[in-house]
Hints:
Blueprint: H1 6-9, H2 14-36, H3 44-66, H4 75-80, H5 90-96, H6 100-119
Amino acid sequence: MKGVSAKDLRGNDPAELLSTARKLQEDLFKHRLKKNTNQLENTALLRSTRREIARVNTVLAERLRALGGTLGGTSASAKSAGTAAAPGSAEGAAESAPKASAKAKPATKSVEKSAKKKES
């Protein structure tokens, strides 16, 4: 799937766009794997694949906006395809909230280390 334009993508159904985005994500993963094992001859494939993913996600986001934010209950599948939740939505806020347990662990370690230094 090379050289896909946004005009061509606008004619597709949202389900087709989701499957196209999923396939492009898989292709990008394969390209990255080949690059890391020095088997990828054309490194421009990484850049072009990322841009094609962005084109598909842009057209999909336009569809979501036009339909009022949902595709008949498939917002979870749109989210798994790489599209972000709308700013200010509950989904976006839950994902960006930091975890309290991750912050507590390093703090206790530093307290333990400082207590050991004081003892010696």
